[in-house]
């Protein structure tokens, strides 16, 4: 059974870059069957898709965040990462990594989420 | 990218049925049979309940069903149980050249 675990700083200063890593166990990020996704949820609000990365390195980003987002893979560590630049308080959220099954166009496995607070 | 439209709340008595709607456009819900529904309990990660409009992943009770008509998708929960009380989010694929994936604003389901 695949498991995902987010890691990274819980506090980021405004204008800095938010960096998170998702470690995948029980499955390979090099599989053609999945996209590897980032989704966030501001406190008390709904879900927002940030984007996903395929095993080839191809990426798809939310247009509203595209200018500030980058994602990458580290196949040697079975990890994928998110960077969000020039953060503001509006980027404060629980950040989830998830496995998006190509054949299902849905996220069937999620990490527990990590709260990132943007504050000086 | 506009979020899909869901009612903020829905409710039903235990044993009854409730339907939650999710309205999009021809560019997302109406354009693809790729609507999903997620259940989220407080403090927990979302759980996939329905994918491809009406398919259930293994382990999801058949009390949960999905459908779509035009630009509106629906999730129906039959035989409501106390543990069904949660937030529900719809999502839709919106094309790789457009917006990728878009979510609804979420519906808080209360079991009376």
> Oligomerization state of this entry?
heterodimer
Radius of gyration based on Cα positions of chain A:
13 Å
**Count of separate DSSP helical elements of chain A:** 0
Beta fraction of the residues of chain B? over 45%
Low-confidence stretches of chain B: none
Secondary-structure content class of chain A: mainly beta
**Poorly predicted runs of chain A:** none
**What amount of the residues of chain A lies in strands?**
over 45%
Q: State the shape of chain A.
A: globular
Total beta-strand segments of chain A? 11
Return the string of H and E elements of chain A: EEEEEEEEEEE
Radius of gyration of chain B over alpha carbons? Answer: 13 Å
Share of residues in helices of chain B: under 10%
**Largest interface, per-chain counts?**
A-B, 22 and 25 residues
- Main pleated-sheet profile of chain B: 6 strands, mixed
Instruction: Write the element-wise H/E pattern of chain B from the N-terminal end onward.
Output: EEEEEEEEE
Q: Give average pLDDT of chain A, whole number.
A: 96
Quick overview of this protein structure:
The complex is a heterodimer of chains A (120) and B (112). Chain A is mostly beta strands.
Write structural notes for this entry.
- The complex is a heterodimer of chains A (120) and B (112).
- Chain A has no helices and eleven strands.
- Chain A is an all-beta fold.
- In chain A, the strands form two sheets. In chain A, strands 2, 4, 5, 6, 9, 10 and 11 form a seven-stranded mixed beta sheet that branches. In chain A, strands 1-3-8-7 form a four-stranded antiparallel beta sheet, with no helix packed on it.
- In chain A, a hairpin with a 4-residue loop joins strand 9 and strand 10.
- Chain A starts with a strand and ends with a strand.
- Chain B is mostly beta strands and 112 residues long.
- The chains are: A mainly beta (120), B mainly beta (112).
- The interface between A and B is medium-sized, with 22 and 25 residues.
């Amino acid at each position: 059974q695949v498991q995902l675990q987010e890691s990274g700083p819980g506090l980021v200063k405004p204008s800095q870059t938010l960096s998170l890593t998702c470690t995948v166990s029980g499955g390979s990020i090099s599989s053609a069957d999945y996209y590897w996704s980032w989704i966030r949820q501001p406190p008390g609000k709904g879900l927002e898709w940030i984007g996903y990365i395929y095993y080839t390195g191809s990426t798809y980003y939310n247009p509203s965040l595209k200018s500030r987002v980058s994602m990458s893979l580290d196949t040697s560590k079975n990890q994928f990462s998110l960077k969000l630049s020039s953060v503001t308080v509006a980027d404060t959220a629980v950040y989830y990594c998830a496995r998006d099954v190509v054949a299902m166009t849905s996220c069937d496995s999620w990490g527990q989420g990590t709260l990132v607070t943007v504050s000086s | 990218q506009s979020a899909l439209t869901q009612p903020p709340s829905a409710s039903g008595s235990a044993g009854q049925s409730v339907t939650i709607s999710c309205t999009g456009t021809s560019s997302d819900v109406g354009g693809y049979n790729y609507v999903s529904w997620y259940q989220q309990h407080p403090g927990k990660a979302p759980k996939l309940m329905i994918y491809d409009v009406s398919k259930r992943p293994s382990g999801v009770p058949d009390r949960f069903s999905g459908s779509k008509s035009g630009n509106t998708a629906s999730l129906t929960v039959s035989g409501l149980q106390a543990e069904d009380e949660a937030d529900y989010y719809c999502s839709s694929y919106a094309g790789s050249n457009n917006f990728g994936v878009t979510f609804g604003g979420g519906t808080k389901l209360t079991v009376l």
